[in-house]
User: Which sequence fits this backbone?
């Protein structure tokens, strides 16, 4: 009996030591059209490799016993079902483009399960766009079954969600101000083609970065592969993933052969544990 109890304590301590501080799930890694693209017969869109199938970009961060989703694109419902997500404590929005907000209505499922409003965190521009996109949510009519949300306006300064500090990183997506986010030593930065030296300072010392890289050719509002790699070389994270990927990037496995050892293309359903 004593031996069994001793073994249980050893196993418990071993499991506790394995516990990570943060879990990141790549809900989607594709650009606004997703991959495959409708009616496209390129080799990427016809690929049988699941890593070449990409829903619209979004992640879920599990940290300090809370679940934070960044962006609710058109595939939000499908992503929640695929990952069997039972709880979301808050939603962060990078910006208001349709591929990042269109699925917001489906937070209603968490309203019903947990009997509370869903906190949303976004800048003023995104808040205004959400109210235009989903007028029935904000009309005050309280129609049965509509999502219940609470908008929290954030600016370019550190804020907290349930005690967890979040540092916005403001970048440009062509001419549109967009937020990336730093949570501890992790950074998520999508839809970017320009970042100031001041905002780069916020990114220094991060161990893990998920960064926008649309394709190999230059683009007016996104980093291409070369630009993303240049920024990562400057910042020198221990590990990095590239996201918001177009079918023009090429086949997942082939592109990965061209990348530095610590950089890979992200793929849908990928899970990262950070200590």
Assistant:
């Amino acid at each position: 009996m004593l031996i069994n109890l001793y073994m249980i304590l050893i196993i418990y301590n071993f499991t506790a030591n394995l516990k990570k501080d943060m879990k990141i799930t790549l809900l989607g890694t594709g650009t606004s059209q997703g991959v495959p693209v409708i009616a496209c017969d390129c080799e990427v869109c016809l690929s049988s490799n699941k890593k070449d199938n990409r829903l619209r970009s979004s992640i879920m961060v599990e940290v300090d016993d809370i679940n934070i989703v960044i962006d609710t694109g058109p595939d939000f419902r499908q992503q929640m079902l695929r990952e069997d997500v039972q709880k979301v404590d808050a939603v962060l929005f990078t910006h208001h483009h349709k591929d990042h907000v269109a699925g917001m209505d489906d937070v209603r499922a968490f309203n019903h399960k947990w009997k509370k409003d869903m906190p949303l965190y976004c800048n003023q521009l995104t808040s205004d766009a959400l109210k235009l996109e989903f007028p029935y949510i904000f009309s005050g009519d309280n129609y049965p079954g509509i999502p219940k949300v609470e908008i929290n306006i954030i600016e370019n300064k550190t804020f907290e969600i349930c005690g967890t500090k979040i540092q916005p990183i403001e970048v440009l997506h062509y001419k549109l101000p967009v937020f990336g986010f730093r949570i501890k030593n992790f950074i998520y930065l999508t839809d970017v083609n320009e970042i100031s030296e001041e905002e780069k300072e916020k990114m220094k010392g991060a161990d893990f970065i998920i960064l926008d890289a649309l394709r190999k050719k230059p683009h007016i509002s996104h980093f291409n592969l070369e630009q993303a790699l240049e920024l990562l070389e400057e910042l020198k994270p221990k590990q990095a993933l590239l996201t918001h990927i177009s079918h023009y990037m090429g086949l997942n496995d082939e592109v990965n052969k061209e990348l530095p050892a610590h950089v890979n293309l992200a793929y849908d359903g990928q899970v990262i544990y950070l200590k």
Notes: The CA atoms of residues 186 and 208 lie 5 Å apart. Confidence is low (pLDDT under 50) at residues 1-18. The first strand starts at residue 22 and ends at 28. DSSP finds nine helices and 14 strands in the chain.
